[in-house]
Amino acid sequence: MAMKKVVGNPTPRVEGEAKVTGKAQYAVDVTLPGMLWGRVLRSPIPYGRIKRIDASRAL
Question: Does the predicted TM-score (pTM) go above 0.70?
Answer without folding.
Answer: no
